[in-house]
């Protein structure tokens, strides 16, 4: 334990010296060796003392994994590295290998200032290498390059010394071409990677060795020697003479910026609040005495401490007991523990100053991507503007019944880690629904549940979520009668003003507001003054308005009427999908004076039926979800990508050229995008990168509406023909 303690002391003594800190991410195309490299850096620098490093490094990589029982991949790591007689603290943060969600990588890039880009010497720069590099440059994160698996060039491709150097030179040129194509200014300002300067290292993460030009001078081992050692298969000597972690960490310290330097350049790019504010100045100066600004990039579960939120602290000092606010959540959370990661272990420390990667427990409302601050009103980092509504659903089942309790726990956890997922757990029927942004999103979540959480699951084929709405209004009030015929409700149905719908979605208006403030907002959005004054309830994007005057017993009945309205709009009359954008106006009402005769069993069905029949009388419409599709593709593959979109009822919205790539922005209905991942790969020879985001709901063309209704109703076991108002007005 003594040694661990010593390392912890070294780490904490460096935490408040931002010029001695480097926050880095390791990014790579899948299978290019990110995890192996992370494990290696850790084994080499500080988690194990230097004397032991030699012995321990040569344990087979898998044994190392087994001994620790965890890939560090899942955690963030802090380590101490000595360079030219000074100690530095390197915080390494894990970045997800899957780049199917730019969001994940962007969030990881948000926390770091520099990135080690790992590229396989044989495969070279791959599509994903391009994506991660582009994300890094967009976030103002400085890259260096590690060329991995150099031994494969010799052992598999049998190249000679000359060819080896030519190939490596070409690979570096390719990476620089990418950097230049993405950002000419940065390229000119010294962001290109340069082997002779030392911002490129070469080696094998599996066999623990690496070289870089500056190191050749001190170790006497260059490409010629590497070639000879590889020829005879003597990796051990190579690893002893030039350990991987030395080459990589030296490069990190020399070329990647400290938080002091980086935050000056980065804060303006990642935070769009007031530039004259105290918070901005404090983040820019990496000020430990300023207000708290903490970006959560990862949430993991510790069996003892509960949820651990990890992220980057840009300003202030985190201490236990602090009351902090999480963007979008009204109540505060109290910090229970503050710590850092050393290897896979979390070590508690008293306080963590700005510029560090911190692990915090007690932030119960935090989710991946949230901003945590000491000021309730603080502007969050990089606003994710679109309110994404989950549009594709799959049912999830545990393969083994004994895993059921675990599955429920895992689904709750996954929902927290990924803000774009919507999980419905029905304890009664045992059906668990997972709704997400698209087919690919759900596939990956399902894959991660099995891989990371160890629960075997099966998922149903994906189903699109539709919405019901109206395009016209009822000609007069629709009468809803209670089952005992003693109560009658007269309700008119019409479309809700589009500006009001947008205001509800954006959270600008709710029933919790002061009546006057609410009324003024609604009038400014185009609602009639009288209606705005009489709003009684809002459910999703539908409103219920009471236009009656002086009715007895109204107050006590209102709660039940709203219940009926909610039931009608939750499962709409056309095919039991959620209703949006409907305004229901209560015009008149006849109530029985005896409370016994106007209970829930009378009022709720009467109002529900009047609203459902009214929707069917007001030109009902089915809306389908659309996604914006962003595709980056080399010019010569553009045709394939365009025809893929156009063949799926898609519309091309814009096309731009960026460097040697074409960026296509299009939109298409979600129902047509199933199978798109494989199809676009085929159409562009795997050279396109694409992502989607929610683009709202649009009416289905009238010609296709009846067929869609038939399909949805059939799937739900309902009568397949389009329902009529009279179906709902049976008294």
Tag the structure with descriptive keywords.
731 residues; alpha+beta; 38% helix; Transl_elong_EFG/EF2_IV; Elongation Factor Tu (Ef-tu), domain 3; 5 domains; cytoplasm; GTPase activity; 27% strand; seven-stranded mixed beta sheet; 26 helices; EFG_V-like; Alpha-Beta Plaits; eight-stranded antiparallel beta sheet; EFTu-like_2; Rossmann fold
Write the SSE topology.
Layout: H1 2-15, E1 21-28, H2 34-44, H3 50-57, H4 61-68, E2 77-83, E3 86-93, H5 102-111, E4 114-120, H6 127-138, E5 142-148, H7 150-155, H8 161-182, H9 184-191, E6 200-204, E7 209-211, H10 213-219, H11 223-232, H12 235-241, H13 244-255, H14 259-270, H15 278-284, E8 293-302, E9 306-315, E10 317-319, E11 323-326, E12 333-334, E13 337-342, E14 345-348, E15 351-353, E16 357-361, E17 371-373, E18 392-398, H16 404-417, E19 422-426, E20 431-436, H17 439-453, E21 457-459, E22 463-464, E23 467-470, E24 478-481, E25 488-495, H18 498-505, H19 515-524, H20 529-533, E26 535-539, E27 542-546, H21 554-570, E28 582-590, H22 600-617, E29 620-634, H23 638-646, E30 651-658, E31 661-669, H24 676-683, E32 689-699, H25 702-715, H26 725-728
Parallel strand pairs: 1-3, 1-4, 4-5, 5-6, 27-28
Antiparallel strand pairs: 2-3, 6-7, 8-9, 8-17, 9-16, 10-15, 11-12, 11-17, 13-14, 13-16, 18-20, 18-21, 18-22, 19-20, 23-29, 24-25, 25-28, 26-27, 29-31, 29-32, 30-31
Subcellular location: Cytoplasm
Protein name: Elongation factor 2
Family: Belongs to the TRAFAC class translation factor GTPase superfamily. Classic translation factor GTPase family. EF-G/EF-2 subfamily.
